[in-house]
């Protein structure tokens, strides 16, 4: 079995693969201060609740954008699973040729998403990932990572409206019942929802214009399903895209 971890700024997504099948997965808050033993105990408890045997894990792969967590996951893998974790970086053999000014700046999750999107959906393609930031990543038909776009995430926008104004409340992100709000909360939710869709569709219109009419667009991450309902360009969602990419990269490196 393969243990795959996607460590983001807000959440950690954990998956267990039995062969190529994702057998179990969990989403937890990212706690950078969590110790090696806390990680080990947490994972063992999750395994126990899902009737999985920790001894069956013969590989661990990690995509992390939180450097503080990395040494603790390294220790946890050795101490609790007796295996060395593979951390995805721009130098990992992923099958993607990274054509950006400084490959080391590209987040591991963006590389992994590009691998999964190209392998599973074909290219050229664009991955839109709704995380703490909203990222757009472009991959050519020839498996070249071309770069992308980074925007403030929806959660950040909500927090900024609340923190930087005197009278606007903290609201949930949801699809509004109507475009023109008749109260403050409704107006904010409409602005957040349609503002996000307008930004996303505007960027995708330009990206697909550069990449060509055959470009596939895949959405993943927290608010993907909600945004897809109103978007002109987002039609495909894959909630497990990053975990699937980690499994593909593991298979590629394990056979070498």
Mean pLDDT over all positions: 94
> Span between N and C termini?
18 Å
Sheet with the most strands, sense and barrel status: 6 strands, mixed
From the alpha carbons, calculate the radius of gyration and give it in angstroms: 19 Å
Q: What's the overall geometry?
A: globular
At CATH level 3, the topology of the largest domain is Nucleotidyltransferase, domain 5
- Given as residue ranges, the uncertain stretches (5+ residues, pLDDT < 50) are none
Quaternary structure:
single chain
Number of self-contained structural domains? 2
Number of strands: 11
Report the total helices.
7
Content-based structural category? alpha/beta
Topology order in helix (H) and strand (E) letters: EEEHEHEEHEEEHHEHEH
Q: Helix share of residues?
A: 25-40%
What does this structure look like?
The protein is an alpha/beta fold. The chain folds into two domains: 2-87, 2-Layer Sandwich (Nucleotidyltransferase, domain 5); 97-245, ATPase, nucleotide binding domain (Nucleotidyltransferase, domain 5, 2-Layer Sandwich), CATH 3.30.420. Helices cover 38% and strands 25% of the residues. The chain is built from seven helices and eleven strands. It has helices spanning 36-49, 70-81, 108-121, 154-163, 184-211, 224-228, 241-254, and strands at 2-7, 11-18, 21-29, 59-64, 86-87, 97-98, 125-130, 133-139, 144-152, 216-221, 236-237. The chain has a six-stranded mixed beta sheet, with helices on both faces. Strands 3-2-1-4-5 form a five-stranded mixed beta sheet. Strand 4, helix 2 and strand 5 (86-87) form a beta-alpha-beta unit. The longest helix is centred in the last third of the chain and has 28 residues, at 184-211. The two termini are 18 Å apart.
